[in-house]
Specification:
The structure is a homodimer. Chain A contains 7 helices and no strands. With about 160 residues, the first copy, chain A, is mostly helical. The first copy, chain A, has one domain: Up-down Bundle (Four Helix Bundle (Hemerythrin (Met), subunit A)), CATH 1.20.120. In chain A, helix 1 runs parallel beside helix 7. Chains A and B meet through helix 1 and helix 7 of A and helix 1 and helix 7 of B.
Chain lengths: ~160, ~160
């Protein structure tokens, strides 16, 4: 394994580990349990799961892996706060969450280590030339942290 | 910049970004504000900051960068839960937090990209041969997620 393979593999493994933790926490929950707030007056678990799904769905074009699967999740879980929209049921959101993550993984599997350093889908050629850190790998690392951030919140309801 | 340099740099930048967010949240807080719980009956901010400091201090030997600076933080912030020990004041913990992170950064600056794939300090040669993913880079990525995890909790007190 080359150094670049080792580094890319470690980051993908850390991504997977965080998804496994999220799956373990969210997937067994009933619709009723998904209504729990992470703290009094804060987001409900159902909103967090939809929010993570929307953010991961946006990674498909951002990492230049393909079109979005659930663009309608933006208004439900991203641009509007919790308790402002009628949300899909837990089973539907869980299915979307799993489909989006499978599509991402299928895309990751097609990338060679060096491909991670290509520009991401929301930066112009000109801006990327000025700042080559605006690459796919930075997106992967940032979104891995985003899962961890909300896991830290979601876990407050579970113990 | 080689691919391995690009990948290692992106991970170090993501680490720094999370530290900057933590600094922005924790450093301006008074001792009184640090007493806030992230949710009713949960850890206080002062405990989270000490806990992050202890975990980062342990990274010094784990990444083979040098000896620990605050080993006494383990019993205060890691092996015992919040509200079981008398804790240092906020100024002291903030100073420790910053010193530990500076020592880590000085160590990172000495590493070549390929060095991140060397075994970390808590795995035997034999076990590392079986599982080369137990390397320094995995530790860096995992601990970056750990900061994000607790940031997601700490932020619940701030808005």
């Amino acid at each position: 394994m080359t150094a670049e393979q080792g580094l890319a593999t470690a980051a993908i493994n850390t991504w997977k580990l965080n998804l496994e933790r999220a799956n373990k926490l969210f997937l067994p929950l009933s619709d009723e349990e998904l209504q729990q707030e992470i703290a009094p007056g804060k987001n409900r678990l159902v909103y967090l799961l939809g929010h993570l799904t929307a953010v991961h769905d946006r990674m498909l074009p951002l990492l230049v892996l393909g079109p979005r699967l659930y663009p309608e999740y933006d208004s439900l879980f991203l641009t509007n706060p919790d308790k402002s929209s009628e949300l899909p049921g837990g089973a539907e959101i869980k299915k979307a969450w799993q489909q989006v993550n499978e599509a991402l993984q299928a895309g990751f599997d097609r990338l060679a280590p060096g491909d991670w350093l290509h520009k991401h889908g929301s930066v112009s050629d000109e801006d990327f030339e000025k700042d080559p850190s605006r690459n796919r790998f930075s997106v992967l690392l940032s979104r891995t942290g985003h899962v961890a951030y909300h896991l830290g919140q979601a876990v407050l309801t579970r113990k």
